[in-house]
Amino acid sequence: MKAGIVINAGDPRTLVDLAALAEAAGWDGVFTYDAIEIGSAEMYDPWTLLAAMAMRTSRVTLGAIVFAPTRRRPWKLAREALTVDHLSGGRLVIPVGLGALDDRGFANVGEVTDTRARATILDETLTILDGLWSGEPFEHQGDHYRFGPMTFRPRPIQRPRIPIWVVGAWPVELSIARALRWDGIVLQTSDLRDVEAVVEHVRSSRPAAGRFEPFEIVVQGSTPPDPIAAAATAQPYADAGATWWIDADWKHPTPASLAARVAAGPPRSS
Fold first, then answer.
1. Entry pTM
2. Which uninterrupted H or E stretch holds 32?
C-alpha cells in the first residue's frame, strides 16, 4: 500500500517546501485540496500549488483530495491538468468528487448544488477529459456541454491518459459504478468492514467493467508522527486490500504539526 499526505497548512512557499520534505521523508504522494472559501481557513489555488510542487519534487505522485470538476470548464481543466502532467514528468493523478457544499464557492456564487445534476456534470466532464487527452479530434454534445471538434496537443505523458480517481460512497450503486469506470475509488468511509466489501466488489466487478489497470482503492485517515502507532493504524487497511493510504488532518492542521507529521514519514510496518 502506498502512502500519501495532504499538505493543507501554511502559506504557498511553506506548502511547496513541505511537499519537497515529504518526498525526502519517503512519502509516495503529496496532495493539496480544491476549495474556494470554507470558514476562516486560508487556502490557495490547487493548480498553482501543484505546478510549484512539480518543480520541487521528482518522484512523488501529485494531486488534490479532491478536485470539484462540476464548477470548472472541462476544456480548461483538461489543459491545466495536461500542463502539470508535463511539468511533473507524468506524476499527476486527478481525484474527483461532486464538491463540498460547505464551500461558499458553490451556492454562494450560483454554482449547481443539486446532487443529481452535479453527478451528470461530473460524468460529462470525465468523458470530455478522456476525449481531449486522446490527442485526436474530439467533439461533445451533452446535456451540459456542447462543442465542435478540438484536438489537444501534446498528449499527456501518462498513457492512456492522466489517471482519474472518483469518490465513491459505499454501498451506493451508482456512486461505485461511476468509480469503476475510471482508475480508482476514493472511499468516503474508513470503516474496515466497508473497505473489505469494496475490495471484494472491485475484484469481482472490475474485469468486466473497466478498461484501465491498475485500479486504485484509496482510503483516508489520520495518523500520529509516532511510527509504531501510525503503522498500527494504517496496516489493517493494507491487509484489507487498499492500495493507497492518504494521511490528512482536516481538523486542526498547523504548519508545525504538519511538518512534524511529514518528517516522521509514511505509516509503514517494519
1. 0.96
2. strand 29-32
